[in-house]
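[Backbone geometry]
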Amino acid sequence: MPVPSVSHVNWERTRGLAQFTMGTVEIDATELSFSKQLETILTSGTDWQEQLDKIENDQFNTVTHKSLPKGTKVRIRPDGRERDHRPEVSEDVAELLAEQVSEQYPFVPVESLGFDRQLSLLLDRAEEYYRELDCYLVRADTEQIADTLRG
């Protein structure tokens, strides 16, 4: 079972986006292992780029998350840990991650990228999608939308 290095920012983003994917705040995503959080995101059946294209063409912007109220925010704590996390991730989940990043970014040589970079690309697309559904990751210490944390 691979034990990849995952930056703390991506660790937190994965938790927050898994929360959106589950479609409920009644069950906290922290109850799931990192691998299960990532698997939840990967197996959501969402082709984010296709959905974003549909949303862009919806001139009335009537698309919302079916299960979560408008303006749902999940707080993340991207600061405070200097070392990367080292979660166990099943081979199947690691392969599914690479496969989905390849689908989302067809001209990127995904096999040449490390696990954390692949994860970051996937989370970027998922975060963009959920933002369009009025679901936001925000810093725990402020109301700042979290996408400004990447750099």
Observations:
- The two ends are 30 Å apart (CA to CA).
- The beta strands are 72-76, 135-139.
- The first helix runs from residue 8 to 22.
- Residues 73 and 136 are 5 Å apart (CA to CA).
